[in-house]
Amino acid sequence: VDAHALVSRGVLGSGSAASVTLCALGNGTDAPMVAVKRLHADARRSRELRTSLAVEAAALRSLLGTPGVVGFLGVALEEHVPREVMDGSEVQTSLVLVMEAWGGGGTLRSQILNCMSGRTRYCGADAARWAAQSARAIADMHARSIAHRDIKPANIVLGVPPGADGKTKNLRCKLTDLGLARCLPRAGATVAPGTAGQHADQTWSANADLPVMDGTHPYISREAAAGGSYDAAAADVFALGVTLYELFAMDLLGAARVDVADPDFLEKWLRADNPWRPRIPREVPAPVASVIRKCWLPSPSERPSAEEVARATSPADGR
What are the CA-CA distances from residue 189 to residues 181, 182, 244 (Å)? Predict the structure, then answer.
């Protein structure tokens, strides 16, 4: 993608390392809108974060056509002058991701926070639909031999399909932020920090620079938190189980119920025997409650596959 063709129309979101900007792809009045992800100036100095962005591009390219993953349109190289070089004598280039402009409904995290604050409240049918869509997206990723490794409500974005109005009932989920993605070249494969992955003819050699800690508490599984080799697909399922609990409970563990960084909580949450888990609300359909409990079991081998979770959460009418 030609970086000079990207015309900024406003910031969609910003995090600690990167921002996502809504851009027109050209100057015409009918120019298509895209989302552009850029590292912040300070983050561009980090080899680890630059690597993560390149990994995200490779993962999104491999997942082209997957309905539940944000669409990938390409990359661009932007030129910029480092802050410390005031005379412009040194020009550097940085990679940016160009993706479909999916959004408008916030993220699952923002929807849950709105419920917690009393501003708005989605209904049980919305939660059931978003749960099924999220599980299906992860199952489709795993079917293409790719694990996300940072599943959480903040990385599931809600948008409106073309032709539909913006009512809550029409919002659909898509996965984003694949910077920690890892290839799963064979069923049941494990991944270890510092290893490269392969998918078809695409080698993600840059994965060697990824950090040891994969994921975010409290969505990270016991085995992933340990820092050794582990089944990344099963770790995704653990994170999905926590995400589904928060979605149906309308409560973020780290925002109100507990301090997820507290050592006492981590010890109870990650222990192998009888770990602490929150009570699932009675309103959650029994089959969904059952699969959530299985998702966050301490043993990876006892958890269901993402495909099994997708089937358990799919509505009977297929919608």
Answer: 14, 11, 25
